[in-house]
Specification:
Radius of gyration: 15 Å
CATH topology: Helix Hairpins
Structural class: mainly alpha
Distance between the termini: 15 Å
CATH architecture: Orthogonal Bundle
Number of domains: 1
Strand content: under 5%
Order of helices and strands: HHH
Shape: elongated
Number of strands: 0
CATH class: Mainly Alpha
Largest sheet: none
């Protein structure tokens, strides 16, 4: 397997992992009644994990600390992913 194919496989795996991770966070937000609709919960978790922070969706105040942990998890995920991509490209 060539280096470009390995990189592409890694990026695709990363996208799937991010989606699964966002779904887990969305279920957490739904279980806390922080966000009422599943679609909005997924959107909020993806935006928070990627640290975009649109601000159009805001969780209920009892889950704002959980949202902060979601953002920290996203920073960790993106930082670790970037490190792996750099290592694969070497």
């Amino acid at each position: 397997m060539g280096q470009n194919a390995l990189l592409m496989a890694y990026v695709m795996t990363l996208c799937v992992a991010l989606l699964i991770w966002a779904m887990i966070w969305a279920i957490a937000f739904l279980s806390l009644d922080a966000i009422t609709e599943f679609r909005q919960a997924v959107c909020f978790s993806v935006v928070t994990l990627t640290n975009l922070g649109y601000g159009d969706l805001v969780p209920h105040e009892n889950a704002q600390l959980v949202a902060a942990f979601c953002a920290i998890a996203g920073l960790f995920l993106m930082g670790l992913s970037t490190a792996f991509i750099i290592e694969i490209r070497r």
